[in-house]
Write a structure and sequence with these properties.
CATH topology: Rossmann fold
CATH class: Alpha Beta
Helix content: 40-55%
Number of domains: 1
Number of strands: 7
Number of helices: 10
Distance between the termini: 52 Å
Order of helices and strands: EHEHEHEHEHEHHHEHH
Strand content: 5-15%
Strand order of the largest sheet: 3-2-1-4-5-6-7
Radius of gyration: 18 Å
CATH architecture: 3-Layer(aba) Sandwich
Structural class: alpha/beta
């Protein structure tokens, strides 16, 4: 029987790349997104017999519970992997960003992960070897200027991942996150350019992230930095004194 994967934010960007990658591996897929047209297009591309689509908002518990329940009916109550990919990003100086956009970062990027993960728990608990993989960010390791609340929301995902990795070990559910720097996707293309984007560049593709998700499905690390450049910075951040890490981040962010 095909392994099952439920993806939020499936209609575009990283979510769409991951869906395509696992469809090619003959997994059965649940595609969740607010963009019903994007879901229909993706379903047409990969084949309707390989997936189910659910037009749902990750910030709405009733919608996510309905989607997860429906997916469980399709898979006989199994869910090998939940991939939390839905996210938003607004670039700007903290004081210039509208409060509604600040709140949206936390609603979608963090609360949306909480909602989807809690909704999926019964299926994950009842599936041997299941796991949760969530999109965090390099920005969540050390707060990034001009992305203050985006970074804070992703830091929350990272902390949630660490807590659930320990808490859900008793259910044999492995919980981990993916930590890329900037990815060339609709989210970054639609945003203003921050200084850190100009300094670091936007060189990763959604397919680069999908490569790492494939690894994360099979191995048991908690945090998965993406790209050689950030892997180097990530390792330094774990061993250097905090004042030196701050100096590096000042240089990287242009502040």
């Amino acid at each position: 029987m095909a392994r099952s994967l439920l993806v939020t934010g499936a209609a575009s960007g990283i979510g769409r790349a991951v869906v395509r990658r696992f469809a090619a591996r003959d997994w059965f897929l649940g595609l969740v997104d607010r963009d019903a047209d994007g879901l229909a297009s993706l379903q047409s591309d990969i084949g309707g017999d390989r997936c189910c689509t659910y037009a749902a908002d990750v910030t709405e518990p009733a919608e996510m519970e309905e989607a997860v329940t429906a997916f469980g009916e399709e898979t006989g109550g199994r869910l090998e992997v939940l991939f939390n990919s839905a996210g938003v990003m607004e670039v700007g100086r903290f004081e210039d960003v509208d409060l509604d956009h600040h709140r949206r970062h936390f609603d979608v990027n963090l609360y949306g992960v909480v909602v989807a993960t809690q909704a999926a728990f019964p299926l994950l608990r009842d599936t041997a070897g299941s796991r949760v993989i969530s999109m965090a960010s390099a920005s969540g390791v050390y707060g990034t200027p001009e992305l203050a609340t985006y970074a804070a929301s992703k830091a929350g995902v990272r902390s949630l991942t660490q807590a659930l990795n320990l808490e859900w070990a008793r259910h044999e559910i492995h919980v981990c996150d993916i930590l890329p720097p900037f990815v060339d996707s609709p989210m970054t293309r639609g945003a203003l350019r921050s200084r850190s984007m100009d300094r670091l560049g936007i060189d990763l593709t959604p397919e680069d992230v999908a490569d790492v998700v494939e690894e994360a499905v099979e191995e048991n690390k908690v945090h998965w930095p993406v790209g050689q450049q950030f892997q180097w910075l990530y390792r330094l951040s774990e061993v250097l004194p905090s004042n030196l890490v701050r100096l590096i981040m000042r240089y990287v962010s242009g502040f």
